[in-house]
Amino acid sequence: MTAGNDIRLDPVDVDILAKALDNVAAEMGTVMMRASGSPAIAEAVDFSTFIADAEGDIISYAGYITMYLGAARQAVRHILATYPRSEIRAGDMFLCNDPFTTGNAHAVDVGVVRPIFIGGELMAWCWAEAHVNDFGGFAPGGMNPIATEAYGEALRLPGVKIVDQGRPVEDVWRIIETNIRVPELVLNDIRCFIAACHRCDERLQALIGRYGTGAFRTYIEAAKDLAEQAVRRRIADLPDGTYTAEEFAEHNGHTDELYPVRCTLTVTGDALRFDLTDSAPQTDGFINVSAATTLGAVVSPLLITLLPDLPINQGTLRPIEVVTKPGTICDARMPAPMGAGHIETGFRIGKLVTRLLADLQAGSDNAFVREHVMAPWQDSWSASFFYAPDEDGRLVPFPDMNGGGSGAGAQAVADGMDVSGVLAQPQNSIPDIEINELVYPVLYLWRRLNPNSGGPGRTRGGAGIDLAFTPWYTPGGQEHVMAACWQVPPSGVFGGYPGSTSGSALVSGARADEALAQGRIPRAIGDLAASATPLQGKQFGLTVGAGDVVVLRVGGGGGHGDPIERDPARVAADVRSGVVTVEAARVSYGVVLDDTGRPDPAATSAERERIRRERRSWAREDGLAVRRSAAHERLAERGQWCQARPGVQLVEYADPGTGALVRADVVVRTGDR
User: Fold this and answer.
1) Which of 417, 499, 414 is nearest to 455 (CA)?
2) DSSP code for 435
3) Nearest-5° angle of CA 586, CA 405, CA 71?
4) Nearest 5°: CA angle at 158, between 152 and 163?
5) Which of 41, 23, 386 is nearest to 190 (CA)?
6) What pLDDT is stored for residue 673 in this prediction?
7) How far, in Å, CA of 91 to CA of 82, rounded?
């Protein structure tokens, strides 16, 4: 194999260089975790890193948060389009957090972009980006549920120099310091991004020094071409055709409506086309996303279900076309607010693509492709922000990253992972409780698995978490919450049931502080001095005083396959671990447990036959037995939770002869409201 410049190419050498670049991108993340003092970075791993070539094409993307690959590429391309090449010099650093120009998911995701020069020639770019605690604006923490335009959100910087040829641009640093609530923490995070970019520059200097600039360019182009070929071969294993599905973003912060996200996927030979142009118009609430974020939201399920063994570079994207329409919820333009768009509309796009891929992959002749079928994940980040003075009297925004503790969708060959986070953030985590309590004025009362939250199935959806905290060493403050999957649950596939949705509650007058002073540790809402008040999907400025308790329940992923086909021993194990209750074991799985917690074979067989008989009695539609129910009511029968909303149904389809469950679809009829 010989390149046009007579450099002989060995695919093994190309792969070695590609893996070396991946290691550099991953090492950038390690630097950030070790240098940052923010739990969102050091504990929750809420960041992304990547390396691009001189023109901004991806040559390595670390798998921390795959959803941001569109934003990373857009940031570099915007700088190249904005700055003359003569003004981009070695040692420069650019700060990017503007969804409208540099493509960031929202303004609290702040990125540093650095050009890398070899011998005076621009050779590459790197990016280090993370969620910071605050970046100014009306809402503590930078995510404003009541914003009606971008100007009511955080400070936006469209790729401006903060370091010029190695020297900090002090005016820009002073602007940032003046506009944010916790400048010491946030400025230190920006310095940790700079440190990560320094590390990338050092590593690339050495790496390119070994290969030479000509060979480096040739090898990275070859790596793109090889990735493209591999992706096209995998796509060719899918059945051709056009497929359409719909999801709904919920509650834009001040209007409790559903906003359709529609995708038409066309498979033609070895190429995919995702058309989202028929999605809802952009809204005056903070659930809109940029086209760059939409690209990442579409590609993330592809990388994990269809292409899990393939590299991520520009070649990976070439066979994939994502079409959006400016002015829609998936391609918003000024002045649309975008504070929570990625965790609202963005994650809904991910669920939509996961559902489409599940049907396609199940019809493939390739066993590898079939085995990686996956049900939709909970894919919601139930954000919670508490803003209160700490024990030294400083007002501190507390972004509770535990809201990312949702459950994964079940796979064809395995249960969904409990407390997995979201599909688009493969290496995300949640902070240790002790770290949050050390940094912020809160005390946790409990954090555990949320029982029955994973969708029942032959393989079970992963469970989310159930947690509660109370103000600590503070007189109290304000709280705002935003549940991204509140009324429309994530579907199961092939007879699997949906997972539970997510929601919050406030226990005012709980007197948790008094209970703790008396040596009693509340372990459930019933142990508190007051009852819980359920909160809306989005609420801002709630008063939380000393002794009050904030409760968060995060939902789970969808199930895969008929739940009464699940091994009874596995159901019993789920009950022992607290993931499934005894009653849900019987109702959802048809498994009856004896007094020792073991499955009763005779009673289980009888219960499962009773469930099949009931299914066979359902009304007939198009040759199938069908039951239609309000989603929240039907899920409640199974010990699951979903916020009630007219028009959101669970439609179950069974084989009228055998009673086997074929599908359990979440169907939304917006006209019923």
Assistant:
1) 499
2) H
3) 135
4) 125
5) 41
6) 42
7) 18
SS3 176: helix
Residues 666/649, Cβ–Cβ less than 8 Å: yes
Tokens 């994973």 — which residue?
Answer: 454
For residue 305, give the 3-state DSSP assignment.
Answer: helix
DSSP string, 118-175: ETTEEEEEEEEEEE-S---SSSTTS--TT-SSGGGS----EEEEEEETTEE-HHHHHH
Q: Indicate yes or no: pTM above 0.90.
A: yes
Model confidence over 213-243: pLDDT tens digits? 999 999 999 999 999 999 999 999 999 999 9
340: Cβ contacts below 8 Å, ≥ 6 apart: 106, 143, 145, 253, 286, 287, 383, 482, 484
- Phi, psi for residue 263 in degrees, rounded to 5: -135, 130
- Specify the 3-state DSSP secondary structure of 416: coil
Provide CB contacts within 8 A for 369, sequence distance 6+: 234, 237, 238, 306, 361
Closest CA to 436 of 477, 395, 386: 386
Token pair for 270: 């070895």
Name the pLDDT band for 672 (thresholds 50, 70, 90). Answer: very low
Question: Which tokens sit at 502?
Answer: 């997510």
* Cα–Cα distance, 299 to 336 (Å, whole number): 24
Report the C-alpha gap between 304 and 426 in whole angstroms. 9
Q: Say if CB 261 and CB 287 are below 8 A apart.
A: no
Strand partners, 525: none
The total of other beta-carbon atoms located within 10 Å of residue 206's CB is 11
pLDDT in tens, 91-138: 999 999 999 999 999 999 999 999 999 999 999 999 999 999 899 999
pLDDT digits (tens, 9 = 90+) for 180-190: 999 999 999 99
Tokens of 399: 């972004």
DSSP 242-279: EEEEEEEEE--SS---EEEEEEEEEEETTEEEEE-TTS
- AA letter at 77: R
Provide the b/e sequence for 168-189 (b: ≥16 CB within 10 Å): ebeebbebbeeebbbeebbeeb
- Cα separation, 616 vs 656, whole angstroms: 5
- Are the C-beta atoms of residues 454 and 446 closer than 8 Å to each other? no
60-74, 103-117, 147-161: lowest mean pLDDT where?
Answer: 60-74
Ranges 319-323, 408-412, 657-661: which has the least confidence: 408-412
Q: Which phi and psi angles does 260 have, rounded to 5°? A: -65, 140
Distance from C-alpha of 508 to C-alpha of 529, rounded to nearest angstrom:
9
Distance between CA atoms of residues 563 and 659, nearest Å: 12
**CB contact at 8 A, 486 and 623:** no
